[in-house]
Amino acid sequence: MRVTIAKTEWNSAAEKILIPAAFGEIADIKEQVKSGESELWRVTIAGNKIVVGYVVTRLEVRPGSAILVIVAGAGECGRAVMRIFCNLADEHGWSMRVHSVRRGMGRYLDLYGFTTMETIYKRAGKK
Hints:
Layout: E1 3-8, H1 12-22, H2 26-35, E2 39-45, E3 51-62, E4 65-75, H3 78-92, E5 95-98, H4 105-110
Parallel strand pairs: 4-5
Antiparallel strand pairs: 1-2, 2-3, 3-4
């Protein structure tokens, strides 16, 4: 089974799938995609028009380097999708960073050469 990705516009199906991966930040992610700061990718099985997931990425360009950031992703075929983005980054000489709300993601990302940089904790404000 061959997985393909393609850039797409923000849509309600993507929003619904990405909400759990956005950890309360879906409005910000949506705005980043709509403004062009981030890109939304549709994940499908080659030869099949059925969408199996979505990924939001952002390219952070700095003098002499660039970082491909996986902002959020959800759906099926995670390993194949991660391989696609790792290959894309390797082709361009970019490093990568992944944001995730999943506790076990570190062990999963170890398979692709990632190391943990930091852990971020969030607390909602009180009214």
